[in-house]
Amino acid sequence: MENLLPGSVIDAIFDFTFYYPLFMSYLWMCGGLYYYFHYERADRPFDQPPPLKEYPPVSILVPCHNEAECIEETVAALQAIDYPEFEILLIDDGSTDTTPQMLDRFTKADRRIRVIHLARNQGKAVGLNTAAMMAKHDYFLCIDGDSIVDPHCLRWMMRHLIDSPRVGAVTGNPRIRTRSTLLGRIQVGEFSSIIGLIKRAQRTYGKVFTVSGVMVCFRRAALHNAGYWNPDALTEDIDISWRLQMRHWDVRFEPNALCWILMPETMRGLWRQRLRWAMGGTQVLFSQNGLFGRWRHRRMLPVYLEYFTSVIWAYTMAAVILLWALGQFVTLPPALYVDTLIPGWNGMVIGTTCLLQFAVSMFLDAKYEKGLGRYYYWMIWYPLAYWMLSVFTTLVAIPKVILRGKKRATWVSPDRGLQP
Amino acid sequence: MKTPLIIERPDLQAWQQKALFSALTAAFWIAWVFLWLPLVTLGGWLFFGYQFRFHMVELNGYARFLNVLMVYAIVIAVMGGALMLWAVYNHIRFRGVDRRKETPPPTDHEMGDWARHPVEVMAQWREFSVMTVHHDAQGSICRVEPALNLRNIEAATKPTDNRRLLRVV
Q1: What residues 210-239 of chain A have any CB closer than 8 A to a CB of chain B?
Q2: Staple A335 to which of A7, A356, B3, B63, CB 3.0 to 4.6 Å?
Q3: What are the transmembrane regions (chain A) (predicted)?
Q4: What is the complex's ipTM, to 2 decimals?
């Protein structure tokens, strides 16, 4: 009996480490397929958006920090948006390169463009809050300064905001531009098979963990109700998604609203980006833990618990790896001994599950990008490379968030991949 | 466009980077094949019956595998089924029903209260085409300075005459 309890607990931890990603994968697939057949399949092609009942004017908010290399094509894509009336607010957040001069030049050439120079670097959230006060219109499209939007995106996103007064935000479908290295290519698959699939599944459930901050449309009334963006949040997109949904605003995903983005292609750049994401998620775990016991927030509980469980999983996975490594050098008690990390037939099942998940997600995304299937070849490494990255960033994120306390988040220029 | 929409230029990598990724690639392939060890063993049995007997008979692998598959199928059916039932239930319950009333955009006064600036001043901000904004330590707007150019002066005096603005610019 003495040995039974610890052994059972350890077995349960091992089982959880193996079964959690396996069964969540099938849950994402079920949810993603339901979303596709219920909402997405009947949609027109992404370059033929449906006509809207009305076309309220939109303010496009573009926070920029040292974007001299990219901003020209970002602005050109925004100017080409197919929508009757919009203004573009370019927010120069204390840039130290030639961004400020470039922005001033844009405004002289196009009367729809306005420029807000922040006297000192303030961070993305403060930049967006400032622009929200300057914006003339009641709908905002927020775009990162290094991304390229599809000309039809605004019509797709606005259909949600116009059709339902409950909708506070609509997030788009980011697509990766940088595909030169192994890391870039894996991310092409990741954005389909993990991010796109999970967003669909979460919408099938009815709530999302986060919008993609790189492209998201807001209703001003919802933002005002939620108190706008939080300057202390490391990932302002996760934070605002939660605060909107906690106030019962609906947050939607629009896969037809495409946005082409630059992503890191070096280990260092990827680590820094994913650590920031993990820290942002952790901040939400701490800031929103009050939802337990509040009946009116019950629908957010599964989303919270799913993320919380994934954090626990990262720690148990690390513990299993550590025990396995220790077992190679020292004699451990039988209950703690991990003979292999690849558990026989179970390993085959999880390997097959991964490939199935990638296949399902690429099938779902195929209508938005031709030739996506060839990245399937590279996706085989996702579970090894990115699960491990996720494990280690999560491990590091929690102590970092605790030690960080309440502090303003400011810009760090990201790795934008290899560019000719 | 300055650069193509899809940037696929592996030739831009440093040789060290290419070597690292190639080595990783090879390692991952080997690791992946390792996942299918039972299946590989099954294939190997065609040539070496001992391994098959070991995995399938002595370790009772075949029965265990079927058992595991059955458990997986039940768990997946329960989890996936619950999610889909939930989605269908919500669809039936809320289809065409929007219980939330339309929330009007915040009024100028509400915006002014949030930004802690007079409504008239904020109305001016919205007419500036180029401006510099100063913030306090908490990130609140302290003051806004319009850029001193013709377009701003014009905008401040005739905010609705866009055609004329264009001519001035």
Answers
A1: 219-222, 224-225, 228, 231
A2: A7
A3: 18-37, 304-325, 345-364, 376-398
A4: 0.88
